[in-house]
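To: structure desk
From: M.T.
Subject: fold request, one chain
Message: Could you run this one when you get a chance? Sequence is below, nothing fancy, just the single chain.
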Amino acid sequence: MDKKQLEERTGVKFNNEKLIRTAFTHSSYVNEHRKKDYEDNERLEFLGDAVLELAVSQYLYRKYPAMSEGELTKLRASIVCEPALVNFAEELDFSDHVLLGKGEEMTGGRHRPALLADVFEAFVGALYLDQNFTDVLHFLETHVFPKIQEGAFSHAMDFKSLLQEKVQQDKKSEIEYDIVNESGPAHNRIFIAEVRIDEEKFGEGSGKTKKEAEQMAAKKALRKLERKHPDS
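Reply: Done. Structure tokens follow.
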């Protein structure tokens, strides 16, 4: 494990070198080095899982004040699930630093999804112990939260409900959706939806179903509203 390279990649400088090493130590490595005082990352993974869930929950709660509890839960689940954690780990090149036993290495363990997801959570747990929750948030603000803002998890969001709640925060407004165009063969139709708020066009979206097109139109409308009222 190259500690300096890892710190440059993550932007995090650890005070306790043993903690960061443990975060990247797989149980197979410990089993092959029993004479040395090594610890695997399973306990740190347990802690990191809880810290990550709290940090993401806090971010979503503040970022999406119009979201219901059910929608927040669904979105959080899509962010802290194994495939998402694997993507975060891969983007930070975590697989290059994992300490594995020879057998695990030979069977491709370095790139096994479950292993990489555990390493990411262990890293978060180690960072929390080495520094504090604020530093965990700073790390996530750099490497995870921007992906939420960019819409990487939009498949888990109900933009029509969000738009309805946001518009009705201030006043009773009428939201209307219309399918304004459809094209393509019957097995591969493309629908264009338009959303209007009090008869003013606020967004247009496309999709393979009418529902998907309306969701994309609502997403565009939300962005337009946020530009008009950035602090609302």
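Reply (cont.): The chain has twelve helices and three strands. Let me know if you need anything else for the meeting.
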